[in-house]
Sequence to fold (236 residues):
Amino acid sequence: MKKITLFLIALISINIAMAQTDYYPTYDGTFDGTTYAQTFTFPTGAQSWAGFANNNASIYSLSFPNGGEVSFKATVAADAEVYFRFEANPYPNVDPAIVTANVSLLASNSAETVYTVTIPTHATNTYNSALMYVVTRDVDVSLSEIKITANASTAGLDDNLLNSVKMHPNPAKGFVKFSTASSELLRVSVYDLLGKQVIPIQTVKSELNISSLYPGVYFVKMDQGTKSVTKKLLVN
Fold:
């Protein structure tokens, strides 16, 4: 068991260190006429904008400086389409927002077929509302293992930011300081070993308050302009 745990931690560490982050939404929030009872349905009579809202607030805020994707398993008895939308904030302050292409779910495919759809690149925006829409009315759509992935940066950009931003001290307690030669805003977020965001994205001028963190190993994701890099932080 100990070896398996260490192996899982190593995999998670590598994933975060590459600045790729996975999020697991729960789209069971119905609005304006949709229904959810283990399957998602957009019935006749529902408003044209009716959909499903994510109720797992721990995934926020989301950002896609290098694009990303949504992956999931789906089963349908009749052909249907779905798409995903990410908004700055819940209604009414939704802009800016990004929308994926429609995903065609085919009844001829086997149960729990894996589908993916690309999230467009948006370098500076953050999103605090994740929505899913079923386009086809009166079809029960079964979705499972829905995962939102924010892509890693390219190696060259990571290397440039790695060299230009300094994080110290490390190990740290209470506060960690940052210094950079760039005039661009530095945005920082912190994740634990399970990939959960424990300090949300915030703009940092010189230091970050980490007094809320328990002693252990964390990963600090730093974004500056279109560049992104993640560094390991030990908290005492």
In short: The first helix runs from residue 2 to 17. Confidence is low (pLDDT under 50) at residues 1-19. The first strand starts at residue 21 and ends at 23.
